[in-house]
UniProtKB/TrEMBL annotation:
Major enzyme class: lyase
Annotated EC: 4.99.1.9
Gene3D superfamilies in UniProt: 3.40.50.1400
Highest taxon of the lineage: Bacteria
UniProt-listed PROSITE patterns: FERROCHELATASE
Source lineage: Bacteria, Bacillati, Bacillota, Bacilli, Bacillales
Organism name: Paenibacillus chungangensis
Name of the coding gene: hemH
Protein name in UniProt: Coproporphyrin III ferrochelatase
Chemical reaction(s) catalysed: Fe-coproporphyrin III + 2 H(+) = coproporphyrin III + Fe(2+)
Length: 316
């Protein structure tokens, strides 16, 4: 049995991505709950990864850098207090692996946080459930950060990016075209609305706060990257929204995928390749905000949120 570790464990959770092209099939099979993808489905996903400059590896590296960045920030905030561990939903190390690693190191108290600012029972909620079940099994007491979508430092980081993006858009499209900021996030099945899920409302709150802080005159929210299942997903999709906006006379668009915190497939392919191709077809000038990745303000947001949850943990 591991000696008791007085440090507070921090389980940093995210969706996960393959480490190499060889891992894509296993990754896709895990997403499909053990059902291997059809050959054409696998070929399509592999083609998306191949289309991204640098392939799969930068996607995994982004998460690794965010975890190490959070560790650095926590060490500044409270030296020798926290130890970060990684837990992924669909790739190794899985969420359960991260909890097991903490337990093996003798950690008895831990905080869980997801690299996603907005809460949904189908996203963050599912991460928390898996982590809690494993923690209960191994005797680790856990507290969770469920959302941080209105943290002042997160809003500042996003506001800075929108301002920068608008400057680039005006330079590309000309000042005669009033720009529109198109906020977006990963779609989820429509049934979350029946559950009273806060996901959609939190996304709108973040969008509104950032738009106001950046002095944005025109903005809209849309969805992207919906899953391909039989049930209806939240819409309209960003490509449909772009078509509607073009018909309304919009000429300059700034894509702000605020539901995502790093450069990965849904940004590098769905926005930078698919949406850009659609923009060209529609005669739109499209720019995208830079993603948060390891931005110091984002790292501080995570560290503040972890520290607050840890104080609640110690109260208990």
């Amino acid at each position: 049995m591991a000696e008791r570790n007085k440090r507070i464990g921090v389980l940093v959770m995210s969706y996960g991505t393959p480490e190499s092209m060889d891992d894509v099939e296993a990754y896709y099979t895990h997403i499909r709950r053990g059902r291997p993808p059809e050959p054409e489905q696998l070929a399509e996903l592999k083609a998306r990864y191949e289309a991204i400059v640098g392939g799969v590896f930068p996607l995994r590296e982004n998460t690794n850098l965010q975890v190490s960045g959070l560790q650095d920030q926590l060490d500044k905030l409270a030296p020798n207090t926290y130890s970060c561990y990684q837990g992924l939903k669909h790739a190794r190390p899985y969420i359960e692996d991260g909890v097991s690693a903490m337990a093996q190191d003798g950690v008895t108290e831990a905080v869980g946080i997801v690299l996603a600012p907005h809460y949904s029972t189908m996203s963050v909620g599912s991460y928390v459930k898996r982590a809690q079940e494993k923690a209960d099994e191994l005797g680790v007491t856990m507290s969770f950060v469920e959302s941080y979508h209105l943290h002042p430092k997160l809003l500042q980081a996003l506001t800075d990016r929108v301002k920068d993006g608008l400057d680039r858009l005006k330079a590309a499209a000309g000042s005669e075209h009033e720009p529109l900021v198109l906020f977006s996030a990963h779609s989820l099945p429509e049934r979350i609305r029946e559950l009273g899920d806060p996901y959609e409302q939190q996304l709108l709150e973040t969008s509104k706060a950032v738009a106001e802080a950046a002095g944005v005159g025109r903005w809209q929210f849309t969805w992207q990257s919906a899953g391909r299942t039989r049930e209806p997903w939240l819409g309209p999709d960003i490509l449909e929204t772009m078509e509607s906006l073009a018909k309304e006379g919009v000429k300059a668009l700034l894509s702000a995928p605020i539901g995502f915190v790093s450069d990965h497939l849904e940004v590098l392919y769905d926005i930078d390749i698919e949406a850009r191709a659609e923009a060209e077809k529609l005669g739109l000038t499209l720019e995208r905000i830079a993603m948060l990745n390891r931005d110091p303000l984002y790292m501080q947001t995570l560290a503040d949120s972890v520290a607050e949850a840890a104080s609640d943990l110690r109260k208990d």
